[in-house]
Sequence to fold (238 residues):
Amino acid sequence: MKTKFNLFIFLGALFMSIVAFASPEDYSKKFKVSGFQNLDLGHAFEIKVSKGSAFSLAAYGRQEDVDDLEVDIDGNTLKVSYKDRNWGFNWGKNRKRIRLVITMPRLANAEFSGACRVDVDGFSNEEQMSFVFSGASRGQLNQINADKLNVDLSGASHLNISGHAGKLNVDASGASHLDGTNLMARDTDVEASGASHVSIQSQKTLRVDASGASKVSYKGVPNISKDLSGAASINQVN
Fold:
């Protein structure tokens, strides 16, 4: 009898320890989504976007946070936020980071804001793609291949890009930073202001309109046209 009692105590303690030390990401939830080609995401989400033949969305994190998610498709745009937005703020909520995993056949436009972390993979042979990063958002666009690629950065956003683009358009402001030296672009158009820093690689042409204390650096030997004001600068790097 004593042996059974001790075994019961042991199993109870083991169960409590498993619960106590369980990862906050142990909870997951899948959402039924379809028919979108644009994204509008913010908050402090960690976001993984991959190209695939079917649509899917899964969320991982603490249960109380995941269950508070509100998923909406507005036209052809997927939006994910919290149900208790309260004008954009979650008063009284100590939110933990949620990881969103998204699969979609085509990505045309994406807007990321807040303190989100973004990783985009697998989108090749695209006609046109546009990305907007604002706030303290950070992103990685891996092996993008597009005829036309538009990038808009503001605030303290940070973006790294690799792949190929026929035409690259960059608009950077605030203290934003773009590292596009691993993106091979044929023609590039850069507008930089504030304390932004833009690094690119361009083969044929490069047009730069820079002001404030912005910095533009480039790889390659393109034909350059530039309009600099303030303490803005442009320089070639190896």
